[in-house]
Amino acid sequence: MSTQVEPDVRRVETAPQPMLAGEKSPAEMFLVKLFAVIPALALAAAVPLAWGWGLGWVDIGLAVFFYTLTCLGVTAGFHRYFTHGAFKANRALRIALAVTGSMAMQGPIIGWVADHRRHHAYADREGDPHSPWIFGTSAGALAKGFWHAHMGWMFQREQTNAARFAPDLLADADIQRVNRWFPALTAVTLLAPALIGGLATWSWWGALTAFFWAGLVRVAVLHHVTWSVNSICHMVGDRPFEARDKSANFWPLAILSMGESWHNSHHADPTCARHGVGRGQIDVSARLIWVFEKLGWATRVRWPKPERLARNRKTTSSS
Ligand SMILES: [Zn+2]
Ligand SMILES: [Zn+2]
């Protein structure tokens, strides 16, 4: 029997973390691209194969509609509003955002918010639920880290303490109710496309293909896009802002993630309602929040402030 204390495998290898991520190795670049691109290519290859018999315009329309609805529920709702308080919402908008975010099937709202607040509190340090850097910086460690940050962390048994990280949501009866509705909302998000597709084509086959493309595939694609913000956007990309972690702006995901892949900007100023703060950085979620504000449903929106941006922006020369 060894009396030695087992080392904690989740410990961060170098503490404190340096501010810069250093150079990415070719192996790291290759692995990230491999994991990110291959399943997407496989899916894209399935589209022409199924076109005309197992996939049609109704399926595409429903998939795009439910993708947009649930993605924005997560980005503008779960993330920018509930986690970071980037704006104030009236009660109807608050409940609508909680419901549409839940329909992304990324877990009940209170756990989602608690996990993400913990991520910001400990970003890329010990305690972060999904940092890709916990195993080290060798190619093998990064492959493991990528998997852990992307999906692996969800299979760990430890649970974020909601009483510590989301007491505001625990104290909200509306949110408690939506939290309990999660299984029902999961059924709705999978079956609603089937119902609409069946009615639109007046066929069981139409219901089945809509269930597959606008239900299962749509949920899976959004899962991977959201998880990519945790994995890819903490590994690869530009880092124009000072952040204590390895968050990065990864432009190829800007559209699909509806602005969330401007992740370095987000970590530099987490409560800001707009993540794509640079010129030409498309941020659909911020545009939606702008619409909510115009409609009077959202107030006290925390839009980017030039002085904050300037303060956070990296400078090469010190004054
Ligand atoms: Zn992050
Ligand atoms: Zn965040």
UniProtKB/TrEMBL annotation:
Highest taxon, organism lineage: Bacteria
Record has Membrane as a keyword: yes
CDD domains in the cross-refs: Delta9-FADS-like
Keyword Oxidoreductase appears in the UniProt entry: yes
Gene Ontology terms describing biological process: fatty acid metabolic process
Residue runs in coiled coils: none
Subcellular location: Membrane
GO molecular function: oxidoreductase activity, acting on paired donors, with oxidation of a pair of donors resulting in the reduction of molecular oxygen to two molecules of water
Protein topology in the membrane: Multi-pass membrane protein
Chain ranges of the Fatty acid desaturase domain: 56-275
Keywords: Fatty acid metabolism, Iron, Lipid metabolism, Membrane, Oxidoreductase, Transmembrane, Transmembrane helix
Classification via InterPro entries: Acyl-CoA_DS (IPR015876), FA_desaturase_dom (IPR005804)
GO cellular component assignments: membrane
Protein name per UniProt: Stearoyl-CoA desaturase (Delta-9 desaturase)
Main location: membrane
Pfam families registered for this protein in UniProt: FA_desaturase
Family: Belongs to the fatty acid desaturase type 2 family.
Residue stretches spanning the membrane: 30-54, 60-81, 93-113, 133-155, 184-205
